[in-house]
Amino acid sequence: MMLARLIGTLMGVGYLRPAPGTWGSLFSLPYAWVLHVIGGFPLLALGVGIAFLKGWWATSRMTAGSSDHDPSEIVVDELVGQWIALLPLSYAAWSMDISILAMWPGWIAAFALFRLFDITKPGPVGWADRRGDALGVMLDDVIAGIFAALGVLALAALYHGVL
């Protein structure tokens, strides 16, 4: 259970108050940067998959036998969603061989959009959240991350005059 708690709470970040989900999202940003710098887009994408599987396992362990299917201290799902929101930036930086930090407005957009979709839970995000199981805990943030990534792409297209 100790390992599941370390993973699920991102080494205790989930116990920070107020807004543990926002702390979890902030915590994930420097780790996304490290993964991108070490291995570019492929490593960050691989990290998303591994974090999802470990988060699903940890969430299952932490909620087993509990009536609360989504305790606020579980924030590994925020890490997965936030990393998904950053994937368009990572791909662009990796494919064009530029610093991902040069796209700092995209980082702000990815963070703000992910938090917006995670908190408001529109459409399929809310559906996943209402599943009431560990997979639903992870999926709602995955979908919120995908929505945020699409928002980042749309904002980048507007900024660069593609639209």
UniProtKB/TrEMBL annotation:
The chain crosses the membrane at residues 31-53, 100-117, 138-159. It comes from Sulfitobacter noctilucicola. One of its GO terms (biological process) is phospholipid catabolic process. Pathway: Phospholipid metabolism; phosphatidylglycerol biosynthesis; phosphatidylglycerol from CDP-diacylglycerol: step 2/2. GO terms for molecular function: metal ion binding; phosphatidylglycerophosphatase activity. It holds the Pfam family PgpA. It catalyses: a 1,2-diacyl-sn-glycero-3-phospho-(1'-sn-glycero-3'-phosphate) + H2O = a 1,2-diacyl-sn-glycero-3-phospho-(1'-sn-glycerol) + phosphate. It is found in: Cell inner membrane. Residues 7-155 form the YutG/PgpA domain. Its EC number is 3.1.3.27. It is a multi-pass membrane protein. Keywords: Cell inner membrane, Cell membrane, Hydrolase, Lipid degradation, Lipid metabolism, Magnesium, Membrane, Metal-binding, Phospholipid degradation, Phospholipid metabolism, Transmembrane, Transmembrane helix. Lipid phosphatase which dephosphorylates phosphatidylglycerophosphate (PGP) to phosphatidylglycerol (PG). This is Phosphatidylglycerophosphatase A. One of its GO terms (cellular component) is plasma membrane. InterPro entries: PgpA (IPR026037), PgpA-like_sf (IPR036681), YutG/PgpA (IPR007686). Its cofactor is Mg(2+). Coiled coil: none annotated.
